[in-house]
Specification:
With about 375 residues, the protein is an alpha+beta fold. Helix 1 runs parallel beside helix 3, helix 2 packs antiparallel against helix 3 and helix 4 packs antiparallel against helix 5. Helices cover about 45% and strands about 20% of the residues.
Length: about 375
């Protein structure tokens, strides 16, 4: 199966390369905002926006007026226009909100450049990038496949990264003839119907005191001063450490589940609605359910497995997985274990819910109404 896959590496640009990256990010942002403003004005006056070709020809004229736009990679400026037109396309299809102006205060700053005529290539322990030339990078693994584009990012911590998007062939994993249900939670991150329990490491809570101390120190610094910038990077590094630890854990769990099971049933949670509960918002944000679901989806698609989304209104924790009796008293989330009044079997709330999710996923596949990934 041919798929698009991204490889992310840390890069170590020298001073002149750092300056050029900053210029390219700024120019890409300027082009996006400039044409977004013109697009909005045209739409108000005529009821019609621009096309990519119109913007592209206008950009050529603009570069003759603003000479500093010629200092940076021209493809990155064209990519900004493409991103703008794609954003408007999604907006008119009612998939997203209207595009907004980009700010230089955004936490992550980046630009994208396309691969043409070998302008992006891996050369030993360095990566060749347009205008930047050869940049040292941490080559943690080999890049396989046809390179499509590269995105250069500067994190708030001051670190630089490159994400290389490639088109590559991935072989489907051998079938395991195994089905599983997944019940995600806060006490334990995930409980499978086969009894496997993945603990909730609580990465944010483990570094919360250190983060609070660093943020308090930042608030006492004079804004925009040297010491303020120095402390701001320390705060960003803690946030980055939390994010990296969480993503690493989610990747390991999702990969293990996809490799060992052919059919995976999981509840179709509306995380954006659940997170509105102030009492549990921090815990839900910390655990990363949405990222976990995304990882399961694309990995299942890569390796020929099936993800079945069970309705969020399905009473997975209330039903007895043995006889089907619905215990409505089980709505109380503090009740972790219960005995079925009908068949007498003893249930662990999470394992019982995951078994019901597995059974419901198989039923949906059988009747042909499953919501597949």
């Amino acid at each position: 199966m041919v798929v698009r896959r991204a490889y992310k590496f840390r890069i170590y640009p020298n001073k002149s390369q750092e300056i050029l990256i900053a210029k390219t990010i700024g120019c890409s942002r300027f082009v996006f905002n400039y044409f977004l403003g013109k697009w909005n004005d045209a739409y108000k006056e005529t009821g019609k926006g621009f096309t990519y070709n119109t913007c592209s020809s206008e950009l050529t004229k603009l570069k003759n007026e603003l000479i500093w736009l010629k200092e940076v990679d021209s493809i990155s400026l064209q990519s900004s226009l493409k991103n703008l037109t794609d954003a408007f396309t999604r907006f008119f299809k009612k998939q997203t909100k209207a595009p907004r102006f980009k700010s230089k205060k955004n936490k992550v700053q980046s630009y994208t450049t396309k691969h043409t005529n070998g302008n992006i290539a891996i050369v030993g322990n360095k990566i060749k990038l347009p205008k930047l030339g050869l940049v040292t990078f941490a080559k943690s693994r080999e890049v396989t496949g046809r390179i499509i584009n590269a995105t250069i990012r500067r994190n708030p911590s001051g670190k630089y990264f490159v994400s290389i998007l490639v088109e590559t062939e991935i072989e489907e994993l051998p079938k395991s003839s195994s089905s599983v249900g997944i019940d995600v939670g806060l006490k334990d991150f995930a409980v499978l119907s086969d009894g496997t329990v993945y603990k909730n490491p609580k990465f944010f809570r483990s570094l919360e005191k250190k983060l609070v101390k660093a943020q308090r120190s930042l608030s006492r610094r004079k804004k925009i001063s040297f010491n303020w910038h120095k402390q701001r990077k320390k705060v960003a590094q803690i946030h980055e450490k939390i994010t990296n630890a969480r993503n690493d854990y989610l990747h390991k769990v999702s990969t293990h589940i996809v490799k060992n099971h052919d059919i995976i049933g999981i509840e179709d949670l509306a995380v954006s609605n659940i997170i509105k509960n102030r009492k549990s918002a921090k815990s839900i944000s910390e655990v990363g359910w949405r990222s976990f679901r995304t990882m399961l989806e694309y990995k299942a698609r890569w390796y020929g497995k099936q993800i079945v989304f069970v309705s969020r209104f399905f009473p997975s924790s209330q039903l007895c997985s043995n006889c089907g009796y619905q215990n409505k008293a089980e709505k109380d989330r503090k009740m972790r274990k219960w005995d079925c009044p009908q068949c007498g079997i003893h249930h662990d709330r999470d394992i019982n819910a995951s078994i019901n999710l597995k059974n419901e996923a198989i039923r949906l596949l059988t009747v042909g109404t499953a919501g597949l990934a």
